[in-house]
Write a structure and sequence with these properties.
Number of domains: 1
Structural class: mainly alpha
Radius of gyration: 20 Å
Strand content: under 5%
Order of helices and strands: HHEEHHHHHHHHHHH
Largest sheet: 2 strands, antiparallel
Mean pLDDT: 86
Low-confidence stretches: none
Oligomer: single chain
Number of strands: 2
Length: 270
């Protein structure tokens, strides 16, 4: 038992440490993303300042609350980065899916490790953005330790929800030869439904209720709303129950779907 745990720790620990190194290999992309994200932040701030011109609150939020939420959402957007749909599609096209299936490690555990490691790496990359948002755009950070602990737990749960949802979507690639259209559709809808662009509380009540229950909201709107104070910390336990329910349901469904979809795999390249 102990030997197995040590072996798994070495294997998945090596996978986890590899991901940041792969990310840091593209330095030009790193610096260009900082510039582009800074420009995007400026656009968001100016946009919301214009929206609030002549009014003090919208859906119960004042301008500072909304700008704070949007800036935090942009800084922590890597927690909503799903790559399995593109990864599976690329592996099928290049013939690498056979290698992935034959690796002597659990495929879902392997990709879950990469999922968490990539999130941490890209969050570290966004430290310059956090500094820009703080000193240039006046971002106000919470100072209560409990808020940060609740936020961290919610992020891990939300990221896990997204992982199993992303895994189920990735299984669709076994039935198609190209994932570009589906990937763009999911990415666009995810930005809207996650609350990364507009706080869900500002949407119509009926739409807000639907979007808040979807996996996308669990990874952006819920944790960022807790961090920014839009949702009281006292409601965290109920939100965690929703996230855990999503994890259990999607874990079972995605694994079942994978076992069916894998029978349709066709290696296109190699």
């Amino acid at each position: 038992m102990i030997a197995t745990l040590r072996r798994n720790f070495r294997i998945y620990g090596a996978i986890a440490t590899l991901q940041p190194k792969l990310s840091l290999a593209y330095r030009a992309w790193f610096w260009s993303s900082i510039v582009l994200n800074t420009i995007a932040m400026a656009i968001y701030v100016f946009f919301w300042q214009a929206v609030y011109a002549g009014q003090t609150t919208i859906a119960g939020l004042d301008m500072q609350q909304t700008i704070n939420y949007i800036l935090l959402a942009q800084i922590f957007l890597p927690i909503a980065d799903g790559f399995l749909l593109w990864e599976f599609g690329y592996n099928l096209r290049e013939g690498r899916i056979a290698v992935e299936l034959l690796r002597p490690v659990n495929m879902r555990a392997n990709y879950y490790t990469q999922y968490l490691s990539n999130m941490l790496a890209f969050l570290a990359w966004n430290i310059p953005m956090a500094l820009v948002a703080t000193f240039l755009f006046g971002l106000r950070w919470p100072t209560d330790l409990t808020t940060w602990v609740v936020f961290a737990i919610t992020v891990v749960l939300g990221r896990t929800v997204l992982y199993f949802f992303d895994w189920a979507l990735a299984c669709v690639t076994f039935y198609t030869t190209e994932v570009w259209g589906l990937g763009v559709l999911v990415m666009g809808f995810g930005l809207f439904a996650s609350g990364a662009l507009v706080p869900l509380v500002m949407m119509p009540t009926w739409l807000q209720g639907i979007l808040r229950m979807l996996p996308f909201a669990q990874v952006v709107y819920v944790p960022i709303s807790l961090l920014s104070g839009i949702i009281p910390i006292s409601e965290a336990h109920g939100l965690w129950l929703v996230q855990i329910a999503w994890i259990i349901g999607l874990s079972i469904f995605s694994q079942y779907f994978f076992r069916i979809a894998i029978r349709k795999v066709t290696v296109q390249g190699g």
